[in-house]
Amino acid sequence: MDTGEFRAIIYDNYEKSGRSFPWRKKTGPWGVLVSEFMLQQTQTERVIPYWNRWMQLWPKPADLAKATLEEVLREWSGLGYNRRARFLKECGRVIAEEHNGRVPKTPEKLLPLPGIGAYTAGAIACFAYNYPAVFIETNIRASVLHFYFQDRRDVKDAEIFPILDEAMDRENPRKWYYALMDYGAALKKITPNPNRRSAHYTKQSPFEGSFRQIRGRIIRSLVSKGPASAEELASRTGTETPDIYKALEALKNESMVAEAEGVYRIGNV
Fold first, then answer.
1. What is the number of alpha carbons within 13 Å of residue 56 lying toward its C-beta?
2. One GO MF term, please (predicted)?
3. pLDDT grade, residue 269 (50/70/90)?
4. Which helix (H) or strand (E) holds 260?
5. What phi and psi, each to the nearest 5 degrees, are found at residue 266?
6. Which of 29, 51, 35, 2 is nearest to 99 (CA)?
7. Pick from 239, 233, 268: which is nearest to 252 by CA?
8. Which of 49, 64, 89, 224 is 20 to 30 A away from residue 189, measured at CA?
9. Half-sphere exposure of 31 (CA within 13 A, CB side)
10. Residue among 208, 219, 212, 218 nearest 85 (CA)
């Protein structure tokens, strides 16, 4: 497909049915960074009330840095993947202490921050500063696969990146990526998911009964009911004691929980 035609179709859809989210409106780079952490593996509609509340509680990186991990996890509860909350708090601290409270402007300077990978670095730079980064996520990938790889399977992202680079609207990369994401999100509602043709496509394992569910229950219990022994946590969460110990060990290694004399509590990072 011709690049100009591709861009025209994407923008036409955006003008007619582009989505509106609070972090797309007038918000600073910190608000964009917070939104990108929350949006990782979480649906946009679920994120909205959390983002609004967080921006009221912690409108600047230094504000979040001063909060306890327990406070942060309490406000995060329900979003899942709790490590994101700890990384976000750590990001606030690093930005406040090492960057004078300003979110870095380029992917290269964003990448060293806690919890930030290639996609998140590119997205923050683009949406916060209109920086022409080339990055990919599920909706972007779906849009490109739909138009350029209709008869292919096992398409690698390495094949998609050059198309994104060529098609980018360098005068307004922020608007372009909003449009591309919105097209991909709409596409998956009306056609079989194009991402199934990606070499990187994997089905998420069931949450019910998973190790991730046990970890989440432990964090929720410690936040809502306070410190406890492993046996008490097993009782609170309805989990077998060996599984509790395994999950607690992993959470300790990630600084999510701390232990003293057999009693576990939320960590203090």
1. 8
2. metal ion binding
3. low
4. strand 257-260
5. -60, 140
6. 29
7. 268
8. 49
9. 16
10. 219
User: Is 36 tagged catalytic?
Assistant: yes
Q: What are phi and psi of 100, to 5 degrees?
A: 55, 30
The residue from 36, 171, 231, 249 that is catalytic is: 36
- Going by the DSSP 8-state scheme, the letter that residue 155 receives in this structure is B
113 CB-near residues (< 8 Å, 6+ apart): 91, 94, 95, 104
Domains identified in the chain and CATH numbers: 1-203 (1.10.340.30), 211-266 (1.10.10.10)
A 10 A CB-CB count for 114 gives 15
Q: If 0-12 CB within 10 Å is exposed, 13-18 middle and 19+ buried, where does residue 56 land? A: exposed
Q: Which of 86, 78, 81 is nearest to 53 (CA)?
A: 78
Identify the band that residue 188 occupies on the pLDDT scale cut at 50, 70 and 90: confident
Q: Which amino acid is at 38?
A: M
260: which strand partners? 263
**What is the separation of C-alpha 119 from the centre of its chain, rounded to a whole number of angstroms?**
10
